[in-house]
Amino acid sequence: MKSCILATIAFLATISFSQTTQAANPEQIRQLLTSKQCQNCDLTGAGLVMADLSGADLSGANLAGANLSRANLSGADLRGTNLSGAVLFGVNLSRARLNGAILLGADLRNTYLVNAQLAGVNISDANLQGAIGIPSQIATPENFYTWGVAENQKGNQQHAIDYFNQAIALKSDYAGAYLARGIARYQLFDRQSALQDAQKAAQLFVSQNNNAGLQAAQAFIQELQTQPNEKISAGKPNLTDFVGSLSSLLLQFFPF
What we know:
Layout: H1 2-23, H2 26-35, H3 141-153, H4 157-170, H5 175-187, H6 191-207, H7 211-226, H8 241-249
Helix pairs in contact: 3-4, 3-5, 4-5, 5-6, 6-7
């Protein structure tokens, strides 16, 4: 049984390596995996899924279209690296140096970016949904708001709140972000905080002459105030049509 499993793994590895060598330089891949040194290498389309590349020097390398899903690139030197179209899903990029890297169309979902250096990086076309530790200097309040709404719609309210917090930190009068955070907090049973956010959103909508936003905030406030003693059963409640309609309405509120 064990020999069968090992044979299967070897067969799959052979297929993977065969597919990799068609797109990338196999000698440079070996160099990278053995020494973690591959400056200015041509690794276009390379298959490096789950590779341990912590501290690797890939400065100036071409990794366009490469698959680095769940690889460990913590502390790696990726300055000036071409990562356009690369799959970086779930990659650990903590403390990585990405200054000047090209991330056009890169898949950065669920990446770990805590303390990553991203000066001079354009992430406007990259997918950063679910990423942790996105530096505020590389994203707009609208980016964080959009990611928050997406997380909320997937049922990830706490992650959504984190995004809305970042949007508000960058833009203190972002009324839509306050309202969105209030809805997420309501869904997590934090009625008092939800009410505070809704009231803040209403004040801002008034000052911004945003009637649609004001009506939504007022409707939410009324819902919160008319059910102050509602008993919440154990487990996550089914959302009402009212809250569902508010969540949909949030899509109309960006950018402000």
